[in-house]
Design brief:
Number of domains: 1
Helix content: 25-40%
Structural class: alpha/beta
CATH superfamily: Collagenase (Catalytic Domain)
Radius of gyration: 17 Å
Largest sheet: 7 strands, mixed
Number of strands: 10
Bound molecules: zinc ion
Order of helices and strands: HEEHEEHEEEEEHHE
CATH topology: Collagenase (Catalytic Domain)
């Protein structure tokens, strides 16, 4: 692992040694500063731990890119009163920038999945493990040991890709609903700005949310504070 922008370039009150470079800290802090908060009125806010690949020119995505992905996720998940916010950002070494094999995906999950946060890895390039060489924009992967889900999004992804992958985290498969961001078939209608989760998928997302809350798969907090623990839907 490269020492300059190592796994310990962590912000948001997490400390580890050895101390990361100031460059890595600054880049991660800029992402944190630009990221939208979980909308205050949401019943559930899920914490995301973001791991961003770095190469010689710095992190592979910009703060604005991350902010746009989070804003899209928060917009689509309003349907089930769920929002997302960054809890931490750290830099991954250059060796993580290009994810090709199943083992690459497994290996990045190792050591990152024990804190009941939604772990999202932002990388430069992601390949289809069933068709090597074919690029994919995002994938929701399962840790082989305990089946826990985590997410990869490539730097060339659509703005809605994180929302799509979080749909998988909440239990959705791909679909053929024209309106749905879970439908991967290229199409002209409806226009992109009108696409979101189909009503049938919102019902499934609610079930997924109930399961996540019951099993404490991922940590959520209640942004309404005084209301106490967030209610199940
Ligand atoms: Zn998908």
């Amino acid at each position: 692992m490269r020492t300059g922008l190592g796994l310990c370039a962590v912000v948001a009150a997490i400390t580890c040694a050895p101390r990361a470079s100031h460059a890595g800290d600054d880049a991660a802090a800029a992402i944190t500063a630009a990221a939208p908060a979980c909308p205050a009125e949401r019943a559930h806010c899920f914490a995301i731990e973001l791991h961003v690949a770095a190469d010689d020119s710095g992190l592979v995505v910009t703060p604005a890119w991350v902010a746009a992905q989070l804003a899209e996720a928060n917009r689509h998940f309003a349907a089930i009163d769920v929002g997302f916010e960054l809890e931490s950002v750290d830099a991954l070494p250059a060796s993580a920038a290009h994810i090709v094999t199943r083992r690459d995906r497994d290996r990045l999950g190792d050591g990152h999945l024990d804190r009941h946060r939604i772990e999202v890895f932002l990388i430069a390039k992601l390949e289809d493990v069933d068709n090597p060489g074919d690029p994919v924009f995002g994938v929701t992967w399962r840790q082989p040991r305990d089946d826990r889900k985590y997410v990869f999004v490539a730097a060339n992804a659509f703005g809605r890709t994180l929302a799509h992958e979080l749909g998988h985290v909440f239990g959705l498969p791909h679909s053929e609903y024209a309106i749905s961001i879970m439908n991967k078939t290229p199409r002209d209608e409806p226009p992109m700005e009108q696409r979101t989760f189909a009503d049938e998928e919102v019902a499934l997302l609610r079930k997924g949310l109930t399961r996540i809350v019951r099993e404490h798969s991922f940590r959520s907090r209640d942004p309404r504070g005084s209301r106490g623990p967030a209610a199940t839907p």
